[in-house]
Amino acid sequence: MTGLLMPKPNEDALARRVEIAAALSAIVPGEGVIADDDGMRPFESDGLTAYRQLPLVVVLPETVDQVSRVLRYCYDNDIRVVPRGSGTSLSGGALPLEDGVLLGLSKFNKVLEIDYDNRIAVVQPGVTNLNVTKAVEERGFYYAPDPSSQIACSIGGNVAENSGGVHCLKYGLTANNVLGIEMVLITGEVIRLGGRHLDAEGYDLLGLMTGSEGLLGVVTEVTVRILQSPETARAVLVGFPSSEDAGQCVADIIGAGIIPGGMEMMDKPAIHAAEDYVKAGYPRDVEALLIVELDGPSGEVDDLLARVSRIAEANLASYLRVSQTETERQTFWAGRKAAFPAVGRISPDYFCMDGTIPRKALPQVLARMRELSAHYDLRVANVFHAGDGNLHPLILYDANQPGELEKAEAFGADILKLCVEVGGVLTGEHGVGVEKRDLMPEMFTEDDLKQQQRVKCAFDAKHLLNPGKVFPQLHRCAELGRMHVHKGQVPFPDIPRF
Amino acid sequence: MATILKPETADAVLDAVSWAAADEIPLEIVGSGSKRAIGRPVQAEYTLDLSALSGVTLYEPDELVLSARAGTPLGEIEKLLADNEQELAFEPMDMGVLNGAEPGSATIGGVLAANVCGPRRIKSGAARDHVLGIKAVSGRGETFKSGGRVVKNVTGYDLSKGLAGSWGTLAVATDITFKVLPRAETVETIMLRGLSDKDAAQVMCTSMGSSWEVSSAAHLPRTAAERIPVSLISGADSAVTILRLEGFGPSVAYRGDRLVDALKQFGSIDRLDEVLSTALWSAVRDVVPLHGDRPLWRVSVAPTDGPVVAAALADLDMRYFYDWSGGLIWIETGEAEDAGAGPIRAAVQSVGGHATLMRGPAALRAAISPFQPQPPALAALSRRLKENFDPKGILNPGRMVAGV
After folding, report:
1. Is A307 contained in some domain?
2. Which of A139, A254, A498, B83 has the smallest C-beta neighbourhood within 10 Å, fewest atoms?
3. Residue B156 to residue A452, Cβ atoms within 8 A
4. What residues in A contact B391, CB-CB < 8 Å?
5. What whole-number distance in Å separates Cα of residue B354 and Cα of residue B345?
6. Residue where a domain stops, chosen among A321, A340, A359
7. For residue A168, what is the domain's CATH number?
8. B324/B247 same-domain check
9. Domain containing B307 — which CATH number?
């Protein structure tokens, strides 16, 4: 973060700022274009506030036609574009570029259609995640992916980041809950991928778009699957004397054929921070705490709670409490959901990391993290989506102490490298953005990254959409398209060659 | 006859594709070849046969993950999973038998390439929703990987999904990792008789929208029901509407009771036990009622649009049934000219969705487009994607779209 290198600004665009703002105002009249520094200030960063940059100009279109014309103008004039939903990205995905138009979708905030028979909702991309559920809850429906930021984050952003949440082991990620989108290519062309039917035809462009971090196109409409709420949900709080025991308990629950609606783990520093903050009734004398939520018909939930409790006891659980009321269940979650702000209270600053690991590697990763913590002399607290292996280490530091920010960054990079080393990945749900961009070669070879960039070339050959994100190095599409052919290799000697 | 290249390692696949790329030699890519008769016929002098690239390379039941080489028989994987009371939750159908292939001969690579799924599609998704990672060789003759072995992963573009449903035209997958899930403890089916298509759609949509976790909903008009090899169904002498419940025993029984309560206004209800249900849904999954030689279409629309499409085609010589709560229609036609492509595509066009010819003579598959034609901007994007994976057009050329 300290020495973040972004693509060299386009001097021509910088010089033509006033003209560009005027041209965009002609497309989006009224207050849809912001070009003064004070007005653009709210857009200078996203959820990753360590980086700030004022954009060239902000444009807030209201119609698909305006989005199309804005993009076409930028395409014709070689102007870079950074799309933005609610700006809650934790990886800098919506960080503006000095020479780039910031395209905000906040005015696309309408629920367009709800179709209960087909169990879908058609919404504009600026609608918040939680508002999708709110729009359908009167009939008992909900939208399953529930990232922690759901009160603020937009559905368009969820598509860009393939957002998850605590329920995704059972109910899937955004990619599994979106049936179709309308999107605008950088050329201004409007296309539809998928729709109300289940299978999109042809190539799975929808699968490629989901999680593409705003580099492939601008989403202008999303069709999502809605589900009927389970009849009941109950949670059990289980404390363990070691994270190994907790990890084994998780493996045994899944081994018994049980897929909980949610299964979260916290380590001792996280438990204490959360308990001090929320008073959720967490035990303080345990090394690891599990929250296991079962949902479904009440009879099934009671039965599974009993099974889970038996498995927990067999794994030396030292504390076990089953929620007896809906309020108590909510209290169990209140501590977990407040874990980040709780840690924020005990440290001036913290970094939230986001690696995913094979679950069985958890004890090894936690042990190594304790060593790194000692090495860097920085505290770390861990919250863990135990069901799916997504780990959120929170590194505590004080930016006012010289050198601590750099130490914290190095610590974070070491953790992510460790995740990759044990068979995991750099980011489970927060995205690569600018934050993990330069770590991509830890996980991918040059050829891997080049093939990903060739997908980019199919959508945006001029690299105008959100450049500087995801990929550590930008290759021109002409260069990526070149074939380096090794003549004379005969794979099978018995094959006749012409 | 095409010359067959049969690599036994991923490196040998790389060698073969690199060689073909250098000399611009088209390759037909096959696993067992069971789905070869789907799509446009591929003209290639060489066949790249992946059936020797076989074997499960990683299976950790507690971690819900399995990796296998692309040519591994699906049956081998399903048996291994069943031995551990797990399964591929997307319930891949046997697509090969539609065209007379040996039952159970599909490979896991083919399952991904055709994005195969089954009646549980409506609850649990398709192959695309369960693939976690791939290693593959692009048409450029370069090895690349994407994804990994964990469920939650947003590191870079999801090229694994990108290969799902690409029918071997973008890259040759050599290793594939899937999420696996526990198999349901038991299954039961709720059956109603004699409903019209429209009423059946209402029953299915209401059930899918309930809290009772219906995992599949199908409706078979009498002419399809009579061909189901379960006597209660074939002997019903009427249309049947079937709803599947899966899970732990007590839960299935409880949900069954609730569902019967909710649906009793629609007439008498039968409840099929685990044995009958398993046979029934396997027949629905593999489209047993429409096995034969006549052209077969797979139509995907919104569930409530299913009966609308069928009604628009009332004049066709056809036999059909619905899966996916009405959103999937399997249509077997006897139309001589174009196998009904004109009216079927027109009916689908009017509601939104797509129609794919899954069985038909090679001449017909070359003459009409077996895959749904796309609007120009989307078709151009698909073509650019193909060019960026396979610039020389050597991988299954023309399989999905003429000239691509």
Report:
1. yes
2. A498
3. yes
4. 481, 483
5. 7
6. A340
7. 3.30.465.10
8. no
9. 3.30.70
User: What tokens appear for A353 in the block?
Assistant: 């990391």
Task: Quote the domain boundaries for residue B161.
Answer: 1-183+374-404
Number of domains composing chain B? 3
Mean pLDDT taken over chain A? 93
| The pair of three-digit structure tokens given for residue A36, joined into one six-digit string | 């003064």
Same domain, A194 and A254: no
> In the numeric block, which tokens belong to residue A133?
């559920």
Among B46, B64, B372, select the one facing A201 at the smallest CB separation.
Answer: B372
Contact B138, B29 (CB under 8 A): no
| Mean of the per-residue pLDDT values of chain B | 96
* B-chain residue closest to A118, CA distance: B303
Q: Does position B57 have pLDDT exceeding 90, yes or no?
A: yes
pTM for the structure as a whole:
0.96
Inter-chain CB proximity B125 and A176 less than 8 Å:
yes
Work out the minimum CA distance from B231 to partner chain A, whole angstroms. 31
pLDDT tens digits, residue range A448-466? 999 999 999 999 999 999 9
* Cα(B286)–Cα(B293) distance, integer angstroms: 15
Residue A50, φ and ψ in degrees, nearest 5: -65, -20
Residue B378: φ, ψ to 5° = -70, -40
> Domain of A291?
232-340
Q: Which of B142, B153, B174 is the best substitution to test chain A (most A C-beta atoms within 10 A)? A: B153
Residue A311 belongs to a domain with what CATH number?
3.30.70.3450
Two tokens, residue A91: 């990886």
Per-residue pLDDT, A79: 98
Provide mean pLDDT across the span B57-65.
96
Provide, as residue numbers in chain A, all residues whose Cβ is less than 8 Å from the Cβ of B156: 432, 440, 443-444, 448-449, 452, 470
The answer to whether position A436 is within a domain reads: no
Q: Is the predicted pLDDT of residue A329 greater than 70, yes or no?
A: yes
Same domain, A223 and A127: yes
Q: Give the C-alpha separation, B212 to B221, whole Å.
A: 25
Q: From CA B2, how far away is CA A247, in angstroms rounded?
A: 53
Task: Report pLDDT digits (tens) over A11-51.
Answer: 999 999 999 999 999 999 999 999 999 999 999 999 988 89
The structural domain count of chain A equals 3
Is A168 in contact with B152 (Cβ distance < 8 A)? yes
- Predicted-complex ipTM score: 0.97
Mutation target vs B (from A138, A201, A307, A450; most B CBs, 10 A cutoff)? A201
